[in-house]
């Protein structure tokens, strides 16, 4: 309770009714006034929570990412920047939830997930299927009861949302790159190769630089 009271008075305007040592462990660990108020057992508990989280992130998430992402997130965890890590994981989970059917049937994406994320994806798919079948699909004609297709006559899974790779993104190259094939603009221009100077900002179709982003040569901003 002392942690909750301290945060309520020290960080005005934020509701900390669900405050706990586990939730604010990084903040507590790097704040001497809070750390010194913990008992010996509470300090051991806090350190154990931090180490468990680090291990979980490294085994289930960080090891699946490009090396440049790994170094940034590892540094974030080590320095106690838990808000950044939580934000990253929250966005990652949201994307999995949004595109779970597409991820499940696409080997390239499925193999990027950790064991826990695969279990989470499968659970989400089963939960959504059950919900749709019980609340909607069971009440429709048999030809329209598919979760993935509009009807049995559909040639593909036309009810499965997919990421929009033709979205334009702001990016910056880490090195001089040439031979980039543009995927947007007039048809005549798509045969032209594009160059990127290191450190220069570009607003470009994601599909054109997808492989370079995944290899760590280009950063999205």
Q: Secondary-structure map with pairings?
A:
Layout: H1 2-10, H2 25-30, H3 32-35, H4 40-60, H5 67-78, H6 82-98, H7 100-105, H8 107-110, H9 115-135, E1 168-173, E2 177-181, E3 193-196, E4 201-205, H10 206-214, E5 218-220
Antiparallel strand pairs: 1-4, 1-5, 2-3
Please work out how many helical segments DSSP would assign. Answer: 10
Kindly report the average pLDDT value.
Answer: 76
Strand order of the largest sheet: 4-1-5
The fraction of residues assigned to DSSP E strands is 5-15%
Helix content: 40-55%
Kindly name the structural category. mainly alpha
What is the number of domains?
3
Overall geometric form: flat
Tell me about the largest β-sheet.
3 strands, antiparallel
What does this structure look like?
This protein folds into 3 domains: 2-81, no CATH class; 99-162, no CATH class; 168-220, 3-Layer(aba) Sandwich (Ribosomal Protein L9, domain 1). 49% of the residues lie in helices and 10% in strands. The strands form 2 sheets. The protein has a 3-stranded antiparallel beta sheet, with helices on one face. Strands 2-3 form a two-stranded antiparallel ribbon. The protein has 10 helices and 5 strands; from the N terminus they run H-H-H-H-H-H-H-H-H-E-E-E-E-H-E. It has 221 residues and is mainly alpha-helical.
């Amino acid at each position: 309770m002392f942690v909750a009271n301290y945060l309520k008075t020290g960080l005005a305007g934020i509701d900390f009714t669900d405050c706990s040592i586990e939730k604010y462990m990084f903040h507590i660990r790097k704040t001497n006034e809070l750390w010194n108020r913990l008992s010996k057992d509470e300090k051991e508990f806090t350190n154990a929570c931090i180490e468990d989280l680090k291990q979980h992130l490294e085994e289930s998430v960080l090891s699946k990412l490009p090396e440049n992402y790994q170094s940034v997130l590892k540094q974030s965890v080590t320095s106690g920047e838990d808000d950044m890590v939580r934000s990253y994981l929250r966005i990652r989970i949201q994307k999995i939830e949004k595109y779970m059917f597409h991820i499940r049937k696409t080997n390239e994406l499925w193999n990027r997930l950790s064991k826990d994320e695969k279990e989470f994806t499968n659970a989400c798919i089963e939960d959504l299927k059950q919900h749709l079948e019980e609340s909607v699909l069971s009440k429709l004609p048999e030809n329209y009861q598919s979760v993935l297709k509009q009807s049995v006559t559909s040639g593909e899974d036309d009810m499965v949302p997919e990421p929009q790779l033709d979205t334009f993104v702001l990016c910056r190259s880490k090195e001089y790159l040439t031979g980039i094939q543009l995927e947007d603009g007039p048809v005549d221009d798509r045969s032209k190769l594009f160059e990127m100077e290191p450190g220069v900002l570009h607003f470009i179709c994601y599909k054109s630089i997808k492989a370079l982003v995944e290899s760590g040569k280009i950063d999205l901003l």
